[in-house]
Design goal:
434 Repressor (Amino-terminal Domain); six-stranded mixed sheet; three-stranded mixed sheet; Beta-Lactamase
Length: 476
């Protein structure tokens, strides 16, 4: 789709080339010159029939007007200046917008755009910090909770995408993902020298999506990374102007990838049948679609409330008890800091997300009921190891909905009083008396907690490394 600013510039360009004034062209196509001026300035969308009349009058095809490229370099600068002046960074300054006149020199216009670019870059750099990330992530988590973690428009987009490559049932194949990329004009290329700060790189200029050479165990990794890259194009994402927008885009591409790997209709049919049999299990859902346990548990949260009439919670917890990801709409009280952020907070030692680490046999899911201040919850937890660190994936529901799940008969039961610190955060009185001020441990500090993210167009990505990679592969 051509944006209105580009369309307006192309109408103006071809009108000028035809030596027509606004009033002359307007009289020919049956509208006032002032209305035509609004269209050329991107403030009004013309009807298709009007575009046909304009194209005929200036001697071009309608497709020439609808081309997505600005007609000249100056037009491109004018469009970019208009977009940057409408952005949050410039709007926040309270300064008036500048409309480039025909007499404004190209050098002056270029300088204005350059100043705006630098202003936007510095704004991105100043907020690309862990503190900003936590705040933005908290806002996004609250937004998704209000939506029951369900985005119907992305569901529709994913269903259309998989249907378009002939998917019917089971695991989505690598070939199907490759076909999706080809339909968008992209080729999947596997390389072993991706920039260390990236999972994939999309070359928009040459139609290439670069991916790592080896799949994450289970076959989920490469498909998911390719689908996330494809999602940026289908969702018409632009370069993020804020950290919050960057996180929203990341959530949307992850959602799209999951909705392709576990399509809506097939997933709901599978889960509904299992619920009717009172045999719901994340591991069955995982195996049916050939994805990771974490992906299946997260996808379950998308569909549970909207299609299975149950509220749920999800946790990814490190071996040290720190919460890495969390979602709930069932009332489970997640640990938070004073800002409402959950990342890095310690979950209760009595939750299955931590008690599961104490098992000697971790092959199968671990089931547990936990009595908490907000009610009793049933949880299914699977443990794993990644990058030499342990983690657990927990999916749970309130006690009343445990009847639909395999493992509901478990006798494992714990009581949690958190956030009351007497539950598990304060040491036993005798131990504290014996050891307080008599020991000095060397803390294991996660360095990234104190570090700003690498500054660049995309938070966390080193532009220099990225552009060197693209030059290297384009020349090859």
């Amino acid at each position: 789709m051509t944006d209105l600013a580009t369309l307006g510039q192309r109408i103006r360009h071809f009108r000028t080339e035809a030596n027509l004034t606004l009033d002359q062209l307007g009289a020919t196509v049956g509208i006032a010159g002032s209305q035509l001026s609004l269209m050329e300035n991107g403030r009004r969308e013309p009807r298709l029939s009007l575009l046909q009349s304009i194209a005929s009058t200036v001697g071009v095809q309608v497709s020439d007007l609808l081309d997505t490229a600005p007609p000249t370099e100056r037009a491109a600068l004018e469009i970019e200046l208009d977009r940057l002046q409408k952005g949050a960074v410039y709007q926040g300054l309270g300064l008036p917008a500048i409309r480039p006149s025909r007499t404004m020199a190209d050098e002056m216009l270029s300088s204005l755009v350059g100043l705006h670019r630098e202003l936007a870059r510095r704004a991105r750099e100043s907020i690309a910090t862990p503190e900003e990330a936590r705040r933005a992530n908290t806002e996004l988590r609250h937004t998704m909770r209000g939506k029951d973690n369900y985005i119907p428009e992305i569901e529709d987009l994913a269903e259309e995408a998989v249907r378009g490559v002939g998917y019917t049932t089971g695991a989505l194949t690598h070939r199907a993902v490759n076909l999706m990329a080809k339909k968008l004009g992209f080729e999947l290329i596997f390389v072993n020298d991706l920039p260390h700060s990236t999972r994939s790189v999309t070359d928009l200029e040459n139609g290439r999506i670069y991916l790592p050479p080896a799949s994450i165990p289970g076959g989920h990794g490469l498909r998911s990374m390719a689908l996330q890259a494809i999602a940026h194009r289908l969702l018409e994402h632009h370069e993020p102007e804020s950290y919050a927008e960057f996180l929203r885009q990341r959530l949307e591409i992850n959602y799209f990838a999951a909705a392709c790997l576990m399509p809506l209709r097939q997933s709901v049919e599978f889960l509904t049948a299992a619920k009717n049999d009172r045999n719901l299990a994340v591991e069955d859902f995982r195996d049916a679609f050939g994805v990771t346990h974490e992906a299946a548990a997260l996808r379950f949260t998308n569909l549970a409330t909207s299609h299975l009439d149950m509220t749920v919670h999800f946790l990814r917890v490190g071996g040290d008890g720190a919460l890495y990801k969390g979602y709930e709409n069932d009332g489970l009280q997640l640990p938070t800091d004073v800002t409402g952020s959950i990342e890095g907070e310690l979950v209760c030692r009595h939750w299955s997300a931590r008690t599961a680490f104490g098992r000697s046999n971790r092959t199968n899911e671990f089931y547990q009921y936990t009595d908490t201040p907000t009610g009793t919850y049933w949880c299914s937890t699977q443990t794993g190891t990644a990058a030499s660190e342990e983690y657990s994936i927990s999916f749970g529901v309130p006690f009343a909905d445990a009847k639909w799940f395999r493992g509901r008969e478990t006798t494992n039961r714990e009581t949690s009083r958190c956030p009351d610190e007497s539950c598990c955060r304060r040491p036993e009185t005798g131990a504290e008396h014996r050891w307080a001020h008599k020991a000095w441990p060397s803390a294991r500090l996660h360095a990234h907690i104190l570090s700003p993210l690498p500054s660049g167009t995309f938070p966390g990505v080193d532009d220099t490394e990225l552009y060197e990679f693209l030059d290297r592969h384009t020349e090859a």
